[in-house]
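Lecture notes, structural biology module. Today: joint structure prediction for complexes of two components.
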Amino acid sequence: MLDIKLIRERPDWVRQRLASRGAGEEERVADVLKADENRRKAIAEVEQLKAARNQAARDIGALMGQKKTAEAEARKAETRAMGDRIAQLDALVKEADAARDALLLRLPNLPHETVAAGTGPADNPVVRAWGAKPEFGFKPKAHDALCEELELVDFKRGAKLAGSGFLLYTHWGAKLERALIQFMLDLHTREHGFVEVSPPYLASRDCMLGVGQLPKFEDQAYAVQEGLDAATRGRLYLVPTAEAPVANIHRDEILPENRLPLRYCAYSPCFRAEAGAAGVGTRGMIRVHQFDKVEMIEIVKPEDSYAALERMVGCAERVLQLLELHYRVVLLCTGDMGFASAKTYDLEVWAPGQGSYLEVSSCSNCEDFQARRMNLRYRAGAGDNRFPHILNGSGTALARLFVALLETGQQADGSVILPEPLRPYLGTNRLTRPHP
RNA sequence: GGAGAGAUGGCUGAGUGGUUUAAAGCGCACGCCUGGAGAGCGUGAGUGGGCUUAUACCCCACCGGGAGUUCGAAUCUCCCUCUCUCCGCCA
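The predicted structure, tokenised, for the full assembly:
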């Protein structure tokens, strides 16, 4: 969430940065300022009364001590009415607080000044590309055909088990999925300095609010219900990304400065309801309700966060480089960025069978937007607690990486050659039909 | 799921309605002392908010979370969460 003091002191700048997202959010700034003013007025009034009540209580205590019972009773009687007034005003403060927070929690982060202005994916500048589109002496197949022929994924039965958008990996497909997860975790922990964690796959509402997944995007999450008790729905959510639990590991803490940067990586399945997304990308495994992902989270001092973002993108790129996949890096423009992010790079891997690039990683610097929501601070010095910056990045998302790997490695005979680093994990250098 | 016990500041740990609107010890920071260190002595130190040029002063709130009783709640009542012990169920 945005710093209310920043909004108070530089409302025009905040409006201008919000406007760059092109969603009209800048119109909410006036509402926020009004709500903030209401809140402060209510607080000032009730606190004055409370100070008076506290003084009265002290006086009564002293009178009782001196056995001046009559005076004490008289003082009690005149103080009694104050309690009701305070209760009323407290309720007003609570209301004003909630009103302000409701607005603040729905305002997106401010795009960093280095982010290109734009309105959609077409305006995302390509920062660099690595490798080249592979050449084939034949017409490359799409991954769904390869999956069926090599029995890597059983789409039909996956849908039978949980509905459209759920995958049943089989034979080499299941092993390849597992191998990719392990390969990426090994890479990030051994070479990139991340600490591996394995979080719960359900996250509390507070965690979801903390990363900015809620309250705006409730329709995209799977809310679970505990047993038959419908009242429990909305307390826990299936994680849409490991970012939700992992970024919140230190919520409500004040970290010693020397613990930063904290670098975590985690595997988790990711569950996305993505209501009403029929049409584009519904075929195969490019857009599904559950996919696997290895996520990187970094908590850093503010002055280090943009260098950390570049580094994190490099860590994600390293995965694709080692797997010998052609990809490009794009900088998301102001109109295409996620809610919590100040600056985001996407990695798009080439999928020859699709004839298009697929997003397999998104690395974002959320600055202090999330730290503020989750009340995570670090001690920069005596009496100087600050919000750290939090970054997240996929390193990388599966399913689509799986697609690119199959489509890139496919051979004329229908088999798929694996890049060298995966071979030890699978015990083979080539995927073939599991049986004749 | 059932029964019981517990949750206090960085840690330990007092505190069952009012000079305790959080004692004491340890640890911490600074100062004095010392050639230096230690010991000793002294001082200080939490979080958020309001008011502010101010991380100064003053004020409000915070003893797991929420509600209540009261002039006044760490303390009494109710609900919830978490931890520990035991029982049941379970991979």
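Point to remember: The CA atoms of residues 222 and 238 of chain A lie 5 Å apart.
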